[in-house]
Amino acid sequence: MAKKNSQKLNTGSRAASQTTTNNASSAKNWLAPLAMAVMLGAAAAIYFYGDTLFGKSNSSSSSEPDMGLKEPIKMNIAQAVMVTVDLDFGRPATIAEAIQQIERGYQPDDGAGRTFAVLDAYGEMTPEGKLHMSMHVSSEKPGTGWLKFKKTGETLWRGRFGNPGDAPAGPKSLTIYMDNGAGGNYVLDGSRNPASALDASLQNSTQKLRDVWPDGSEREFTFIYSACGCPVKAKVRRVGEKTQRASDLPVMFPDDPAVVQVIANLMKW
Question: What is the DSSP letter of 102?
Fold first, then answer.
């Protein structure tokens, strides 16, 4: 039997509207060798350069919006908050569509890059015909930021991250866990350049993931790629030499498309 990892991830509850999440403990880095094996260019750059290459994705160069008397949520660097909103598209809409209609605005204290990232998004239509959506937002560097609904121009949320002069969060790295069915997790080891997740060895073991994941069975995977160390979870089913998600939700790492591509290549999605 493979050695089971006894560490339990602090996932917390998916609370509504701006519930602050404590920093998760740092996970071991395994992205670099794996990214070089399965991706070219952009994916490898995630590890070597952190967010500097992708810092302006989906960003707004406009001034901070006027929110009237509403104060921004104050957060430390490398913390997370759940932002929950009801969006009226005038018709049924998906989370994948909605996340593309949310403008991310950044006003960093140092004038460069982004101040936060959306880690995941999920939700559903309400009986009233609105899309109830929750977004997991992680602060990355000092400054302010906001979320705006493009359809109406409404500013949905505003945050103040850290204080002027605070250090930004360090470079992020990807870590992947799979539940072992007994309350713990297997940790995938990417140091041996696996061609896929199934070929990845388990940390501190000679066994591979395929040895402990029966074909046709469903497992919960945890992906960590954030300044706060917060987990993003997805149900995944093994189908022969490939895997498939059991659901399209949550939408994972919409602000980091290169790491989404790395994960997709690993999982053979």
Answer: E
Domain presence at residue 6: no
Q: How far apart are CA 12 and CA 245, in angstroms?
A: 22
One-character DSSP codes across 224-263? E-STT--EEEEEEEEETTEEEES-S-SEE-TT-HHHHHHH
Q: Which domain-ending residue is among 141, 161, 181?
A: 161
Tell me which residue range forms the domain holding 140. 55-161
**Phi–psi pair at 176, nearest 5 degrees:** -125, 130
**Quick one: pLDDT at residue 11?**
32
Q: Which of 118, 143, 161 is the last residue of a domain?
A: 161
What is the phi/psi pair of residue 107, to 5°? -135, 80
The pLDDT, as a whole number, for residue 30 is: 47
CA–CA gap between residue 234 and residue 222 (Å, rounded): 7
Helix (H) or strand (E) holding 124: strand 116-125
The answer, yes or no, to whether the previous bond of 250 is cis (omega within 30 of 0) is yes
- pLDDT of residue 50 exceeding 50, the answer is no
Residue 143 and residue 62 share a domain: yes
Q: Are residues 136 and 227 in the same domain?
A: no
Supply 265's token pair.
């290549």
3-state secondary structure of 113: coil
Number of structural domains in the chain: 2
Give the pLDDT confidence score for residue 57 in this predicted structure: 38
What's the mean pLDDT when you consider all of the chain?
81
